[in-house]
Amino acid sequence: MHSYETNLTGTLSLLLYVIFFTTFLIFLPTKGAGGWSPLVSNKYQWLQIDLGERMEITAIATQGGYGSSDWVTSYLLMFSDSGRNWKQYRQEESIWGFSGNTNADSVVYYKLQHSIKARFLRFIPLDWNPNGRIGMRIEVYGCSYRSEVVDFDGKSFLLYRFDEKSINSLKDVISFKFKTMESDGILLHRKGQNGNFITLELIKGKLFLFINSGDTKLHSTNSLINITTGSLLDDQHWHSVLIEHFNKQVNFTVDKHTQHFHAKGEFNYLDLNYELSFGGTLAAGKSVPFSHRNFHGCFENLYCNGVNVINLAKRQKPQIYIMGNVSFSCSQPQTVPVTFLGSGSYLSLRGSSGQDEISVSFQFRTWNKMGFLLSSNFHQHSGEVSNYSKKFVYKHFFVTDFIFLLGAELNNGQWHSISLAAKRNHLSIMIDNDVTSVLHLVLPMQIYSGDIYYFGGEPSKFGPNNLSSSDFECKNPFGGFQGCMRQISISNKVVDLILVQQSIFGNFSDLQIDLCGLIDRCLPNYCEHGGECSQSWNSFYCNCTNTGYMGATCHSSIYEQSCEAYKHRGNTSGFYYIDSDGSGPLGPFLVYCNMTDTAWTIVQHNSSDFTRVKSSNRENPHTVFFKYTANTEQLQATINHAEHCEQEFAYHCKKSRLLNKRDGIPLSWWVGRTNETQTYWGGSLPDVQKCTCGLEGNCIDSQYYCNCDADRNEWTNDTGFLSYKEHLPVTQIVITDTDRPNSEAAYKLGPLLCRGDRSFWNSASFNTETSYLHFPTFHGELSADVSFFFKTTASSGVFLENLGIKDFIRIELHSPAEVIFSFDVGNGPFEVMVQSPSHLNDNQWHYVRAERNIKEASLQVDQLPPKSQPAPVDGHILLQLNSQLFVGGTASRQKGFLGCIRSLQLNGIALDLEERAKITPGVDPGCPGHCSSYGNLCHNGGKCKEKHSGFSCDCSFSAYSGPFCLNEISAYFGSGSSVTYNFQEYYTLSKNSSSHAASFHGDMTLIRETITLSFRTTRTPTLLLYVGSFYKEYLSVILARNGSLQIRYKLDSHQEPDVFNSNFKNMADGQLHHVKINREEENSDVDQETMKANSQGFTGCLSSVQFNHIAPLKAALHHSSLAPVTVKGHVAESNCGTLTGAESTLSETTHSFAGSIYYSPYFSYLTGLGEPLANAIRSDSAIIGGVIAVVIFILLCITAIAIRIYQQKSLYKKNETKRAENEDCAETALKTELTVYDLI
């Protein structure tokens, strides 16, 4: 191994001249031949520079060997204060190495992102010219660094007493640096009255800032503030601390990682004494609610509100009291750590063979759950020690295996100690010096020490694939150790690892000696939205459970951004969580989505009932605050996205005025989310100061603009909707005019109602390949997600692109079935591709979502499985863009997109495509044609209708209602009730007639019918349906006396009626049955059985009745005044045909009747296999010769030939009113269920 070291007082074989400037210290290589080139080129070489004292290094530059083919292509930079315990410099949060030279002469210069304060530098080559050797010339740029330090021995501290007049209780700034090898200790403490205190404590290598404020008790959890940051701070390297307290704001910074805290209540005032201790406290445990120890280590440049505390202590100023032994130079512990980098790492050390006493101890720290720690080849036997599943494992292989579990949470990144001792057949293992948990074993054999101890792994020749029983008799099932070790001792002698590094003692592979390279990959925490971070040696992981987000970094919301988005996924009305800003910082919250033709978002508050008010006046006003289920920021985002928002306010008054002024101040007012007082009321506009009646001119007293201002001694009201979005929602109402005799008021504030989502349908049409929209630069340095809808007929095109100097991001349609997401963050171009099984240029809307974070990149198209690619473990992580964002094209105007882009969002922020398209040539705002993509959401015969912003379902010709024609129309029929629907008047109809009836029915000669209905009854016999014509042709559907379903029809007056029986079961069982009848291509006094069934009438439930495009039951219940329908008896709308979610999962029995044969038989009764069960009588009659005149629905009106019966074994959500008594058991059960129904 070869290395060179230089210092300021002389030179070695590499000649470096040292030149001092006012600001910079520069090392220049010689002008002649020279440079550093070791005799052997391998990864264990380094060049070390001693600057003589701590300096501040700001930049470095390298060249290759002069006039040679020797240069280094990549290297690491280390630094140290003492020449021991090195630390590796990192450019970014995950960039370790520097790119070097590509030839011998060019200079590669780096300005360090953060300067280094150190005395020693070490350059370690990683790669070099394969056709040459390692060769380097180096320049180091920097300046002098001055500091003052104090060293605490764990028992001492400084007590700083400051002048009361010089302290501002509302502002404090404390800054310093510290370094230590201890994981615990108090760094500063200040106590006060009533239990107030501020304490900064190092606990398990992290810094905790405790603040107890106000006059609350010491142990109150409401008053104790705990802010935590930093990690692995016990590494004997300098760490900076900055605490800023101004009013209620606290900024706590450790090594450039800042925690911000904004306190509430009386936090801005801390009743503290004028003493501040550093390094410990005088009265241990009496003033802080936690166990602690004093600090053992060094402070540097300690400032308190601009005062240099260490300088005061050195000059022995009276403000400083030195408690215990402190020194003003920092001691340098000589502990040498070693880093195990990978699965092939190991350290082998020789011991004394054949000894009957064995003693091995060491310390380790790691993040991994599993790893090999120690093994040795005992005489004739073997043993192995590993940490496995966060526990300590001892395993002995001989005839029988012994497994012992010791310790817990050993992979938490903290230093843990292990001591192993054996004598003859007695073995003991102790972890973390805990004598209470020592494992004592008596082995069935006597053991003697071997000659070699392996730490962290084994040489490959002893691996499981090449095991030599003579050398080693155990396999390693745990994998190599990744982490750090130190203080290794064998036979009670500490191993000098510097001798190992110099190849004087022992052997090793893939190690870094004299530094611990363990880093905390969870600092900073890249898990977003409260995701829990965990880590291993190479990576970190995010647990997104219960956060409402998903993905590698918990970046993407699992909820939609609005009720409009839920609606267009086919969701019906109900409670939903919405996330107004998607992947942004706002969390999800619960709302009610009312799905009508448009989607309404309903946000409730905490006071929705009428509230009566008495005895309020200016001095004692009635004030109410409204708290919503969402916070202010969430409400603002929801309102901004909505097309319209409103909130109803009802004010009932008796001698209580609203707008009348006393001394120029209104008697009542309200406050919105902008915290501005508003004096206009429901139905009015801002600054108008009127109520609804004042705008409409119909107030009860024309002299006033509100009914209540008439000040009458009788109840009246002013009710209306507040609809100015910028002022909503109402957060406070103040009423002051109810203290006069007989004066009283009552008010009610409705929920916040918002309609639509402007961003969901915001779109632009790109008409030429050279057209595009441009927006400001996209900032998504650590996490970036882009989502949008598109439709096109083009085979390719770029959806969007944003460029940087080297970085870029692009999403494009690469081919008709391929979407590619590509980007570069400095590690080279990166692509994720999704290939669709069908073409995407079908002029249908397709969804694209791309996400890039420091863990991975992913791309999803429609409902296809997302594709993802992992990011490099140690690479560049920041996406740095600086150009405009191009949408629908590129900066070069090539590969432009032809088609429509809609609902474009970047990190949850919607871009207004329509506004930008209005001023951009070649791009039009909006994009028609939504029904082609969303028409399938209209069910049960509903028709899709285009709207400017979306679509709606027209349910006019459907038996169902609702936004997607999914709501069943059901009714309860009382005894003797019926619904009659007249298709036309009772006279012979001519196609040439000019009457309205003729124009509507003249083309209604029917060649096919489709009838559907559901029923539920216990009565037999009963008539479900009768369809008759003027020519005495008819069809009836009845339940026979035995409960079987019969279809009776007569299409020829000279023949007897034909009858089909469905003898499946008794269908008058009180259960819900669905029936569908179809008749095709075929072409009447009522028979006796039909008359009998009709005479019994129908009692029960009918639902979803449909005859072709006519819904007679819906017409009777919803449009009785407009439709030609007659209702007889008691028919009440009900939900009796609606099934709950649980009921819908029950098993169903399905039977079908289908008329699919055009000729003989004219009607076919088919099983599930489609085979006819019975043949109908042939008829020479033509297709039904007359227009059907009357359809009477007594149970359910249905015509024709194929019937599907679905039996539901369930109950209804609500019951109907009891209509009859003394029924049989089944009918009694049905009546019980129908006890209550909607009477509204």
TrEMBL record:
CDD domains associated with the record: EGF_CA, FA58C, LamG
A single Gene Ontology CC term: basement membrane
Pfam family, one: F5_F8_type_C
Entry's transmembrane regions: 12-30, 1182-1206
Localization (cell): Membrane
Disulfide bonds: C900-C927
Membrane topology (UniProt): Single-pass type I membrane protein
Domain EGF-like: 518-555, 928-966
Residue stretches making up the F5/8 type C domain: 1-143
Recorded family membership: Belongs to the neurexin family.
Name assigned to this protein: Contactin associated protein family member 4
Source organism of the structure: Vombatus ursinus (Common wombat)
Chain's gene name: CNTNAP4
